[in-house]
């Protein structure tokens, strides 16, 4: 039987609902609806499938503000056995270095793990740097762009399918390891109604502070980061003619043909 | 002398073109600030590769030739890069933001406690010598100017296709390094691979993109592309369904197009997709839904069923339009 399968969940605003204020040069996420990062849902789905096949306990781990609570419960509703949120004001402003350190420290505290899964990247930051970083802090192997875990053998090795340029490769990797799961690599399940109700009403989310992790505040947040954001800017969409063509199909085809002829 | 390193990616003897773009950009920064520029290449039997890479602006290529480095291996490459960087202490290491480049940079950052800028679309040093880049986020709609602080080496991955690979007529030295660390993989073994040649469509002049509205029926898409002498791209949902390789997926998690012409068939216009066509000259889209957001990102927005209008267009293209 597998030991713990830990899945990292990040809560992100829906990208199309994030508003940029060009005057204050800040991002307003407050009006955007939040959701579990899509690729992290793929990671959770993969974890649940592994549990069905090899046993083990699926635990989700997140790092963010307390308001993430209700979104994290959706992971429990999908089938996670437990969920932990690392939340502390001192974590604000963490770049990928302290983020991966904090998550690695929490993973050590959970302990007894065989596999750590996360999405290949988050839709808001999208750096993809956290999974190899956690591997580095924990001194365990990491593998990225994983579309499936094909097999876990008795001798403590897993075979994973990794996307490469022009195809894929099979990688044999020693447990414990961390894998970054490719966005869209599977279809995350819908929670069943009764479990969802239980997760929303009765499940007790564990919240850990920095002190619980034994991490010094100057190792995380702005102080622990090795990058700073000096400015934000809006990337303006390209100017387009937006000419609408509709009507008779033959005429449309003819018009398209003419536009193409002019432009090629 | 301060040194800018560029990781030159290769796979089984094939150079990754986007690494050479980064190398040429490093040359430009090297000239501007008086830094040395070094390409770093790992592989097996790499003599030819090293000489080829040397033409793109490096003062020297530092290389390690070992059978264990023939193809990318996360464990072995990280060991090799960390040891080399400890030996030379470069100011900066740049990686192309390919899958392998991102994988390696994320791991190498940890032992050095380094700042790492993700998939930048511009790159410079500020007045204090801090590596500075523009990092797109939120599906490409917002960019942040990000700097490395108190880091050595300073690290960045660079979005492919942003800079141009240029050859330079200058002398390049070739330095072979032997490593102390054992490069035999211990916990990460690549046991098999399946790959076919893919065309890099980031530089294609004409691209026909298939979206969800095609329902995955790509025959007319390929037919149209063929008649226009264009390449084919897809939106993410089609790649998710395995109908096309990720290498031709357009948008913020895939390829950014710079084409003269792009024809978008049945894609609604999700933000992560439209960021991939914003640098194209002419965008024609066809969609059944008159309110599809793709309209805002099109020069010509044709409201029609693609399965009805495209066959008629194909006829015209085949018949030379005299019908």
Parts with pLDDT < 50 across at least 5 consecutive residues of chain A: none
* CA-CA gap between termini of chain B: 69 Å
CATH domain topology of the largest domain in chain B? Rossmann fold
Strand runs of chain B, count: 18
The CATH homologous superfamily of chain A is named HUPs
Largest sheet of chain B: 7 strands, parallel
What pattern of helices and strands is seen along the backbone of chain A?
Answer: EEEEEHEHEHEHEEEEHEHHEEH
Mean pLDDT of chain B: 94
Number of helices of chain A: 8
CATH fold-type name of chain A: Rossmann fold
Assembly type of the chains comes to heterodimer
- Name of the CATH class of the largest domain in chain B: Alpha Beta
Number of DSSP strand runs of chain A:
15
- Mean pLDDT score of chain A, rounded? 94
- Shape call of chain B: elongated
Q: Largest protein interface?
A: A-B, 80 and 99 residues
Offer a concise description of the structure.
The complex is a heterodimer of chains A (264) and B (323). Chain A is of the alpha/beta class and 264 residues long.
